[in-house]
Fold this sequence. Notes:
The chain has 412 residues and is an alpha/beta fold.
Amino acid sequence: MARRVVVIGAGVIGLCAAEDLLRRGFEVTVMDRAPDSVSGCSYGNGGLIVPSHFVPLAAPGMAWRGIRMMANRRSPFGFESLLNLEVLSWVGKFMRASSAAHVAQAAPLLRDMNLASRGLYEEIISRLGISCGFGKRGLLMLCATKKALNTEAHLATEAGRLGLPAQVLDKTGLRQVDPGVTMNAAGGVYFEDDAHLTPAAFMVALRHYLSGAGVEFVTREVRAFRVAAGRVEAAEEIAGDLFVLAGGAWTSHLCKSLGFRLPLLAGKGYGFTVAEARETLSVPSILTEARVAVTPMQDGARFVGTMELGRPNERLNPHRIAGIRDSIQNYYPALLASEVPVNAVWNGARPCSPDGLPYVGTTGSYQNVIVCAGHAMMGMSLGPISGKLVGELASGDEPSIPLDLLSPNRYA
Length: 412
């Protein structure tokens, strides 16, 4: 069995994989292009753990809804450019996957992965003594219009069939769930099984623990691999028996350098944290029509939104940022004390597969390479279960979650 594992990527997926591998007795090296900092995608996201998100991004009607949104520069969805063969190929795969049959297959899988991950968070946080504001207070889907509320009510019915408790609430019900904040909404759906945490606090504490426990961290961008006899021997001269590709939105480039394609686009998100809000938010929410996540954290209220698909980059789109600000005022008219300066806005590249499911498994080209990427907006939510699956694959154990729908070879 492989003893030395090289994990490429120090986001939440890579760190959770390193933690599970370490407990199984492997020697672990983590490589990442960025130094030890809090600038990565995993540090600035909404911090939500979401069993409620059992419908994948590729679902009936999503493609045409996205096309209609593209006409509005402040909308929560768009493409940086469609004049790109890689993007057009991804869009074609996305449209083919957006079917009711795909949702029916994916929903139980996403439910099980999120519920397993929530339990693993509790176990890891307790075992390592991590203080990261973890709370199981559920999630409110706030709906500004009756039309959106009817759609979410249908989703609540589907959730019930999957064993996920959900309540459809009117304005009075919203106030009872979160009385400390003024909400301008027709109603909402309260998903009881969701949880949240402060991502940066969890990430910093986990990395600190891993460093002290013997995991080696190497700051280096991986551009090339050394391959011999159908096996990967080294990444940038860092040797290993097994390699885990967990580089987020950059994983497709890692795969390309190994000679196989992994359809993946970067879905850029923007966010900011307000340390001193006018009102006290206690329950996380998603502003349904605006697609903005709002999460109470240790350092304030975090607002995250948009899905701008393209290649990974750090350019800021002021129109998307303005759209997030406007939506907060629409749903929470008394929450913000002032405008948030542009220089305080975070952006991150979420790795998006065409069918809305992550890639987890070995490749058809190299059996000593495990791909774990493509978690889109659920990277933080699915981090621990993804790390556990990597550990199970590395150990030769039966995966605790079926991997058929997650195969990295499904577009080969």
